[in-house]
UniProtKB/TrEMBL annotation:
Subcellular location: Cytoplasm
Family (UniProt): Belongs to the RuvA family.
Function text: The RuvA-RuvB-RuvC complex processes Holliday junction (HJ) DNA during genetic recombination and DNA repair, while the RuvA-RuvB complex plays an important role in the rescue of blocked DNA replication forks via replication fork reversal (RFR). RuvA specifically binds to HJ cruciform DNA, conferring on it an open structure. The RuvB hexamer acts as an ATP-dependent pump, pulling dsDNA into and through the RuvAB complex. HJ branch migration allows RuvC to scan DNA until it finds its consensus sequence, where it cleaves and resolves the cruciform DNA.
Self-association and partners: Homotetramer. Forms an RuvA(8)-RuvB(12)-Holliday junction (HJ) complex. HJ DNA is sandwiched between 2 RuvA tetramers; dsDNA enters through RuvA and exits via RuvB. An RuvB hexamer assembles on each DNA strand where it exits the tetramer. Each RuvB hexamer is contacted by two RuvA subunits (via domain III) on 2 adjacent RuvB subunits; this complex drives branch migration. In the full resolvosome a probable DNA-RuvA(4)-RuvB(12)-RuvC(2) complex forms which resolves the HJ.
GO-annotated molecular function: ATP binding; four-way junction DNA binding; four-way junction helicase activity; hydrolase activity
Protein's name according to its UniProt entry: Holliday junction branch migration complex subunit RuvA
Gene3D superfamilies, alphabetized: 5' to 3' exonuclease, C-terminal subdomain (1.10.150.20), DNA helicase RuvA subunit, C-terminal domain (1.10.8.10), Nucleic acid-binding proteins (2.40.50.140)
Stretch list, region Domain III: 151-200
A Pfam short name: HHH_5
Primary localisation category: cytoplasm
Organism: Metabacillus arenae
One GO location term (cellular component): Holliday junction resolvase complex
Domain of life from the UniProt record: Bacteria
Domain comment as written in the entry: Has three domains with a flexible linker between the domains II and III and assumes an 'L' shape. Domain III is highly mobile and contacts RuvB.
């Protein structure tokens, strides 16, 4: 019904903001109202939630946050309040990562999310958020990026084996790993880099 409201922030409370647009003040529930500044102009992406006993506007700074909110609303056991609490963490990419990794322990930290609901979130949303929220967690759904990381990981493993064959102790090699992991190199380059570091 309302895709967005563009206007000036007239009022801020811990629960909602009031956006003034052409003399009308829209009360909009947001995950964190205090990310908005009074008297500043914003585009707030809105969702009009209507049930028998409630009619409310929910709003977000990013369109993708709104998409994630709508996806969460489709999960059995999660209402607008619960979905807002999850988005209020301020880091939707962490939420998406937890869903993709099936990290129930992370999800149950949110108010109103028990083990059963966490399981339901994973069941309903895992693998289905790439198209809905591309800007929030682009790397998570970038398969090329994952392939590169896999190649890098394999090259490093091969380099470690080569160093062991050369007679270096595992303890010595392990000391170098944190620095080597930060680099994207071929197996040969990893071996050369490790040898240089050993000989320093």
């Amino acid at each position: 019904m309302f895709e967005f409201v563009r206007g000036t922030i007239d009022y801020i409370t811990p629960e909602y903001i009031v956006v003034e647009n052409h003399g009308i003040g829209y009360q909009i529930n947001t995950p964190n109202p205090f990310i908005f500044q009074l008297n500043e102009t914003y585009t707030v992406y809105t969702y009009h939630y209507v049930r028998e006993d409630i009619s409310a506007l929910y709003g977000f700074k990013l369109r993708d946050e709104k998409s994630l909110f709508l996806k969460l609303l489709n999960v059995t056991g999660i209402g607008p309040k619960g979905a807002l609490a999850i988005l209020a963490s301020g880091n939707p990419s962490q939420v998406i990562q937890a869903i993709e990794d099936e990290d129930e322990k992370f999800l149950v930290k949110f108010p109103g999310v028990g083990k059963k609901t966490a399981r339901q979130i994973i069941l309903d949303l895992k693998g289905k958020l790439g198209g809905a929220v591309p800007s929030i967690a682009p790397d998570l759904f970038n398969h090329e990026s994952h392939e590169e990381k896999d190649k890098q990981s394999q090259a490093l493993s091969e380099a470690v084996e080569a160093l062991k064959v050369l007679g270096y102790a595992e303890r010595e090699i392990n000391k170098l790993l944190p620095k080597l992991e930060k680099e994207a190199l071929t197996t040969d380059q990893y071996v050369k880099k490790a040898l240089q570091m050993m000989l320093k």
